[in-house]
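Hey, I was hoping to borrow your eyes for a little while. I've dropped the whole record in just underneath, so have a look:

——
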Amino acid sequence: LAPVASMSLYTNYGSKWSFITAAACTVVSIILTQFLSFKNVPAAPTPVETAQKKPRRKFSDVFSTRGLIFFPMLLADGFQNGVLDLVVVVYATALGIPEAGAFFFSVQAIVTVCLAIPFGFIQDKFGGKVSVIIAFLCRGIGCLLIAVSPTYTSFVVAGILCGTAKPGNNVLQTDAMKLQPRSHFGIASSTHLLLCDFSVMIGSAVGGYLVDYAGGYSVCFTVAGIILIAGAVVYFLMQPAIQKMINAAATLDGVAEAN
């Protein structure tokens, strides 16, 4: 819904109202979060307890170094996200079909919602490896399709493929959290999201450079497609090491429960 609404606001009232509406939605979301309730949240230690314990802080308390094993895959994923967010609508507009850019994101969102549960089933049934590899390959093919044949139909099909791949991101984050014992899930999650944002930043910068100085839109989408397919290969090769780290974290959880 958001891409269609944003494009409608932009077309009828100008870009200013797209940003104003986005800001208003953010404010409403912040207000609504105040009504959320969380159960079984441990009470924060009192100042006296904190002063008595004085734990020695370690780098691993604020950053999950184990999560760096996902960085190559996140770079591939972030490059694709940066390119799509930055270039799709601009490219479609340059081709004279701006609606295709907005429709790309709408189709992607619809497909993502429809396939979120099936992807979870695939993960439970066959393991996360299958769903992540499918995700990388679908997005890679989608980018290459736009690069080779930039038509309205290509944007729609690419949106379907990228939407099919979106739930794979959840699998990556789930595995990233499993690398740490349950007591460090918060750090594992924040590290993963930090690496995701850093990867999108790099992808956006490189994508913009490719468009302006290295061959244009087609080259940008071609590079994105190749990097994503390479991401699938890297994930496949690194899966044994990732699984070994997950098993080690599970062993630590078992020891903690026994004690």
